[in-house]
Amino acid sequence: MAEPVITIGRHIIEQERRYPEATGAFSDILLDIAIAAKIISREINRAGLVDIVGSAGKLNVHGEDVRKLDEFADEVIFNALDHSGNLCVMASEEVEDPIPIPEKFPCGNYALLHDPLDGSSNIEANVSLGTIFSIHRKISKGERGGTEDLLQPGHRQVAAGYVVYGSSTMLVYTTGAGVHGFTLEPSIGEFLLSHPSMKIPDPGKKIYSVNEAYYKRWSLGQQKAVDELKDDGFSLRYIGSLVADFHRTLLYGGVFMYPADSTNPRGKLRLLYEAAPLAMVIGEAGGASSDGHGSILEIEPQELHQRTPLYLGNRHLIERAEAAIKADG
Ligand code: AHG
Ligand code: MN
Ligand code: MN
């Protein structure tokens, strides 16, 4: 019997029905993100054909080379969500300060933080890229939102998810009621439910994912954590696109690590729009997250673009890494 065809719109409406207090604003935000994802996907899939690849000729707040597709993705998301009246403020990896909702548009009760394009250094090599998003409730008193609505700990997220632009384009999200994956059917321009109620396999495949080039810069504990996995016969898989490495970890199991090191004592990945949303997804899928000492979701943010060491994957593997780091510092 053919599987029922459930679009992301139908799925979100059904999810919303379960929560009578849901106002529909929340569903609109997810649907607007899905529209942005379709537009970004189309551009990525033709990136080699138009002059949209390559450097935008400037550096972002992190001193990283901004690619034209980074900027494109950032603009698409802003334009898809700035006028809907559902958001009170936005934040983007590509923009130093909080992004206000234009005065001409009404403000809503949610804040959106996002990494518009993750893994962008891989664009020219046709490696999978991603978009990561995090949604919080507005907590500030004023009519227009601001920093206070953005600097919230991960456990207060009302939704989180990502898009992976790979051999197919998938949107994966959670609102705290399971993790659901949708695959874009380009011929009809619809995201169709392909992975209902995703759970990380446990035990999963023996895969660890880390950039070993930095081994010598790691703490003794971190080195030991990786040595133990090698001794246990684990395979190494590292794509260098966080969303792609994360998606594989969610589907196959194992552990992803981007540790602190002597050059980057807080690691490289950003808390609010890379680590926290993926920590919500992996937690909802039965896995765990850590900064090496405790759950990512408990970290109280101090700055918009603050970095954190990041561990995501099967719970027992996260606990083993934390124990090795604790034992050897
Ligand atoms: P972004 O493209 O959004 O700046 O993210 C790049 C990140 C992440 O995608 C990946 O896990 C990490 O960079 C890879 O860093 P290394 O090259 O240092 O391993
Ligand atoms: Mn990123
Ligand atoms: Mn990015």
Features:
globular; 8 helices; binds 2,5-anhydro-1,6-di-O-phosphono-D-glucitol; 2 domains; alpha+beta; D-Maltodextrin-Binding Protein, domain 2; 8-stranded mixed beta sheet; Fructose-1,6-Bisphosphatase, Chain A, domain 1; binds manganese (II) ion; 30% helix; 329 residues
Summarize the model shown.
By secondary structure, the chain is α+β, with helices and mostly antiparallel strands. It has 8 helices and 15 strands. The chain has 2 domains: 188 residues, Fructose-1,6-Bisphosphatase, subunit A, domain 1 (Fructose-1,6-Bisphosphatase, Chain A, domain 1, 2-Layer Sandwich), CATH 3.30.540.10; 121 residues, D-Maltodextrin-Binding Protein, domain 2 (3-Layer(aba) Sandwich), CATH 3.40.190.
> Taking all residues together, what is the mean pLDDT?
93
Terminal-residue CA separation: 55 Å
Spell out the helices and strands N to C. Answer: HHEEHEEEEHEEEEEHEHEHEEH
Number of DSSP strand runs: 15
Helix percent band? 25-40%
CATH class of the largest domain: Alpha Beta
CATH topology of the largest domain: Fructose-1,6-Bisphosphatase, Chain A, domain 1
The tally of helices reads 8
Sum up the overall morphology in one term. globular
Strand order of the largest sheet: 4-3-5-6-7-8-9-10
Question: What is the strand content?
Answer: 15-25%
Write the layout of secondary structure elements.
Layout: H1 8-17, H2 25-45, E1 55-59, E2 65-67, H3 68-81, E3 87-92, E4 99-100, E5 110-118, E6 129-137, H4 147-150, E7 157-165, E8 169-174, E9 179-185, E10 190-195, E11 207-209, H5 220-231, E12 235-236, H6 242-252, E13 255-258, H7 271-284, E14 288-290, E15 310-313, H8 315-328
Parallel strand pairs: 3-5, 11-12, 11-13
Antiparallel strand pairs: 1-2, 3-4, 5-6, 6-7, 7-8, 8-9, 9-10, 13-15, 14-15
Helix pairs in contact: 1-2, 2-3, 5-8
The structure holds 2,5-anhydro-1,6-di-O-phosphono-D-glucitol and manganese (II) ion (2 copies).
